[in-house]
From TrEMBL:
This is alpha-L-fucosidase. Residues 1-19 form the signal peptide. Keywords: Glycosidase, Hydrolase, Signal. Residues 61-327 form the Glycoside hydrolase family 29 N-terminal domain.
C-alpha cells in the first residue's frame, strides 16, 4: 500500500514538474509591442520643406512654392529600403514648420499649395502605395510642434492636430508606428502649446489599434535618450512611464529604463545616416560607412532597442547614391556577420540544471524567441557552458530573454577562454530582447555564462556566437 501511494505521489509530482509553466513577471509587453520588437530595423525618411530650404528646422514662414521635387519616386525609396533589409519606413508627414506632405483639410500649409504636380500630389499616398508594393510597413511622424498654424497655442490646435491624425490614420492603410516628436517651441504667435496627449493617444488607439506610439515616454515605445545611434549598456524595458512626459528636462535619469518600472516601454534608437536629419548637399560625403552602421546596430539592436535609421531624401525626391551604397554595404555586413557559429551538433551546450522538460537546453539554439531554457528554482548559480570541440574564431556573444514573460535578468557574467589561453571576464547587467557582447576576436575554446541576479526565475531563449566583420573583412572588434 505504502509503495503504491509513494509511486502515485512520484507520478503526480513528475507530471506537475513536467507541465509546470513559468509565470510571467510584470510589466509585460503587449502583443503589438512584441511584434514591434521583432522588426529590429526600419527606416526614417526626413523629406519635407526643409529639404528645399536646406535647413534642419523651418520657421513656418516658408512659401509652399519651394516644395517642388523634380523626380520624386517613393518606389525608389521602398526598393532601396527593402533591399537594405529594413522592415518599414516612417515619413515626416509634417515637421516643426507645419508643412504637410498630404492635402490636409486642417491646414492651409501643404503640398496642395505647392507647384509639385500642380498641387494635386500626396507624398503620404505615394509612399503608402510603394510600401505596400514592396512589403514594407508604413509609419507616420507628425510633429505636434507647428510653427505655422495660426491656432497653435490654443485649445483648438489640439483638436486640429487630432483631426490631422485621423486623416493620416484612416486614409492610407495600416500604420505600424506613430511618432511624436518631443520638441515643443513657440508657435507663430509666440505661444507654446499645452498638448492634449490623452486625446492624441486615443486617436491612434481608435483608428490604428495595432500601431505602437513613440514619444519620450511612450505610451508604447520610448526615445532612447540620444540621437547618436546607441542605447546604454544597461537597458530595462520597464519604466515609470507616468513620471515623465515628452520633452522632460531630466530625461537623462530615465535613460536606462527601470528595473522595477511600472510599464513596458522599450527603447528605440533614432539616428541619421548623415550628420543632419534633412538633406544638405554639403553632407554628401559625410554619409556613415557600413562599418559605422554595423557598430550602431550592435549598440542598438544588440542592447535591447530597435534601430530607426534616417535617410534624408534629396531635392529631386530620391535617395542619394551615397546613402543607398552605404545601406547596401551595411546589409551585406549583416549577412556576412550575423550567422550563428555555434553548431549544436559539434559544440556542446551544457547547463547547470533544467527546470523541466518544457525549458530544456535545446531551446537555447533553436532561434525561437518564444521557447527558453530555465534552471531549477533551487539552482543558486545557473550556468550555461559551451565547450568547443574545435575552437571558433569569433568576437560577439548574443543572448536573448523571452520578453513575453517579462524582463528578468539583473546581472550576469561571461567567461571566455581562447585557444591560446587568453581569458576574459565580461560583467553585464541586462539582456532584454537581445544583448550582444563584443570581445577581442580570438579562436574561442570555452564560454561560461553565469546568471547572478534576477527579478524572477531566469529564462534565456537564445544563445549565438558571431564574427562581426568590417567591410575589409577584418574584425570590427579588436
Ligand atoms: C528631433 C527633431 O527636432 C529633429 O528635427 C528630427 O525630426 C528628430 C528625429 O527629432 O527632435
Amino acid at each position: 500500500m505504502r509503495i503504491i501511494l509513494l509511486s502515485a505521489v512520484y507520478v503526480c509530482s513528475f507530471f506537475v514538474a513536467f507541465s509546470q509553466q513559468i509565470s510571467p513577471i510584470s510589466p509585460l509587453p503587449s502583443k503589438k509591442q512584441i511584434q514591434w520588437q521583432a522588426l529590429e530595423y526600419y527606416g526614417f525618411v526626413h523629406f519635407n520643406m526643409n529639404t528645399f530650404t536646406n535647413v534642419e528646422w523651418g520657421e513656418g514662414k516658408e512659401s509652399p512654392s519651394n516644395f517642388n521635387p523634380t523626380a520624386l519616386d517613393c518606389r525608389q525609396w521602398a526598393r532601396i529600403a527593402k533591399a537594405a533589409g529594413m522592415k518599414g519606413l516612417i515619413l515626416t508627414a509634417k515637421h516643426h514648420d507645419g508643412f504637410a506632405l498630404y492635402p490636409s483639410k486642417f491646414t492651409t500649409h501643404s503640398v496642395a499649395k505647392s507647384p509639385w504636380k500642380n498641387g494635386k500630389g500626396d507624398v503620404v499616398k505615394e509612399l503608402a502605395q510603394a510600401c505596400r508594393e514592396y512589403g514594407l510597413k508604413l509609419g507616420i511622424y507628425l510633429s505636434p510642434w507647428d510653427r505655422f498654424h495660426p491656432a497653435y497655442g490654443t485649445d483648438d490646435y489640439n483638436k486640429i492636430y487630432a483631426e490631422m491624425q485621423k486623416e493620416l490614420l484612416t486614409q492610407y492603410g495600416p500604420i505600424f508606428e506613430f511618432w511624436y516628436d518631443g520638441a515643443n517651441g513657440e508657435g507663430p504667435n509666440g505661444k507654446k502649446q499645452v498638448y492634449d496627449w490623452p486625446l492624441f493617444h486615443s486617436m491612434v488607439n481608435k483608428y490604428q489599434p495595432n500601431a505602437v506610439q513613440f514619444s519620450d515616454n511612450g505610451p508604447d515605445i520610448r526615445w532612447v535618450g540620444n540621437e547618436r545611434g546607441y542605447n546604454y549598456e544597461t537597458s530595462w524595458s520597464p519604466i515609470n512611464r507616468d513620471e515623465i512626459y515628452p520633452g522632460y528636462p531630466q530625461f537623462d535619469r530615465y535613460k536606462n529604463g527601470q528595473e522595477n518600472g511600472s510599464h513596458w516601454v522599450a527603447p528605440e534608437v533614432d539616428v541619421s545616416i548623415r550628420p543632419g536629419w534633412y538633406y544638405h548637399p554639403k553632407e554628401d560625403n559625410k554619409v556613415k560607412s557600413p562599418d559605422s552602421l554595423m557598430k550602431i546596430y550592435v549598440a542598438s539592436v544588440g542592447r535591447n532597442a530597435n534601430l530607426l535609421l534616417n535617410i534624408p531624401v534629396d531635392t529631386r525626391g530620391l535617395i542619394h547614391p551615397n546613402d543607398s551604397a552605404s545601406m547596401m554595404g551595411f546589409a551585406e555586413l549583416r549577412k556576412k556577420s550575423l550567422f550563428n557559429l555555434l553548431k549544436p551538433s559539434s559544440n556542446k551546450i551544457q547547463v547547470s540544471s533544467t527546470f523541466n522538460s518544457t525549458y530544456t537546453v535545446k531551446n537555447l539554439s533553436d532561434q525561437d524567441v518564444s521557447s527558453a531554457w530555465a534552471p531549477q528554482v533551487n539552482d543558486s548559480k545557473p550556468i550555461v557552458k559551451i565547450n568547443f570541440t574545435q575552437s571558433v574564431l569569433s568576437n560577439t556573444l548574443m543572448l536573448q530573454e523571452p520578453i513575453a514573460l517579462g524582463q528578468r535578468i539583473k546581472s550576469f557574467s561571461v567567461e571566455i577562454e581562447a585557444e591560446n589561453g587568453e581569458k576574459w571576464l565580461i560583467k553585464a547587467k541586462t539582456i532584454g530582447n537581445k544583448r550582444m557582447l563584443t570581445f577581442p576576436e580570438r579562436k574561442v575554446k570555452h564560454i561560461r555564462i553565469i546568471l547572478e541576479e534576477y527579478r524572477a526565475q531566469p529564462l534565456i531563449s537564445n544563445v549565438a556566437l558571431y564574427r562581426i566583420i568590417s567591410t575589409r573583412n577584418e574584425s570590427l572588434y579588436h
